[in-house]
Design a protein that fits this description.
Elements lengths: L1 H9 L4 H8 L4 E3 L4 E3 L2 H5 L5 E2 L5 H14 L4 E4 L3 H10 L4 E3 L4 E5 L10 E6 L5 H14 L2 E5 L8 H4 L2 H6 L2 E6 L5 H6 L6 E5 L11 H8 L6 E3 L5 H15 L4
Length: about 250
């Protein structure tokens, strides 16, 4: 919005052209979807596209519409290969990670990127799809991400060796399944805020992540916030808001 007003003031854009660009605020009606172009102005972070249940064409149209009008990151989460191919054909430069199913349509412009450091910690390699979703989301938003993977509590010395890396971050995202103990351990090692992500990894009594979720919600270590099961994207969004509020930006 600020850029558009500057263009009008300088004469580089006519009033008629500006009105045409403003026509789709606060949202753009694409038929089955109404793309929220105003969200970036309200929250500082643009809308993301949740791919499951949508056709490749619907995902493509929503992602392309957001990429055309958003200065921040544009992301599609949980995309399959067919959906990703449709978006990449429409938006040059979009990248897809098949393991996390995260599609980065565009990264945030430097002027609006979130500046800061994030550590993404995973208990085991089975948790990597969720951890990679968190890391990829955070990097697209502008954060510098340090990956600390396969440091679960069954070999707790592995995470103890990374205490300096944890303390060097502005925030820590911890991803764990099974009994979900790792966030409590990490929160006891660092002064940084911890965003815990339970995963659906585990045997029957883990109840597809419910055991890890309840363990994290019941953590005795202070400074732990918990997002939903397998929600690496949501954890990165929480971390970005924490970092942006705590650190001078710009």
């Amino acid at each position: 919005m600020r850029d558009l007003l500057d263009l009008v003031a300088s004469g580089a854009t006519s009033v008629a052209e500006a009105l045409d660009r403003l026509r789709d605020l606060p949202y753009e009606d694409l038929g089955p979807a109404r793309v929220d172009h105003h969200r970036e102005l309200r929250t500082g972070l643009g809308e993301a596209v949740f791919a499951p249940g949508k056709t490749p064409g619907e995902v493509r149209d929503a992602a392309a519409a957001l990429a055309a009008r958003t200065r921040g990151a544009v992301l599609v989460t949980r995309a399959d290969t067919e959906q990703a191919a449709a978006v990449r054909a429409a938006v040059p430069g979009a990248s897809y990670d098949e393991r996390s199913r995260l599609l980065v349509v565009r990264r945030a412009d430097p002027e609006v990127a979130v500046r800061g450091a994030l550590a993404v910690v995973s208990a085991g390699t089975s948790d990597l799809p969720v951890a990679l979703e968190a890391a990829g989301t955070a990097e697209a938003l502008g954060l510098q991400v340090r990956r600390i993977f396969d440091v679960g509590v069954a070999g707790v010395h592995r995470v103890l060796d990374r205490r300096a890396d944890l303390e060097a971050a502005d925030c820590v995202v911890v991803v764990a399944g099974m009994e979900g103990a790792l966030p409590s351990v990490v929160a006891g090692l660092t002064s940084r805020p911890v965003v815990a992500v339970p995963t659906s990894v585990g045997y029957g009594a883990s109840f597809e992540g419910l055991a890890a979720l309840l363990a994290m919600l019941s953590s005795c270590a202070p400074g732990v916030a918990v997002v939903n099961i397998d929600n690496g994207f949501g954890a990165a969004q929480v971390a970005a808001r924490i970092v942006r509020a705590a650190r001078p930006q710009g």
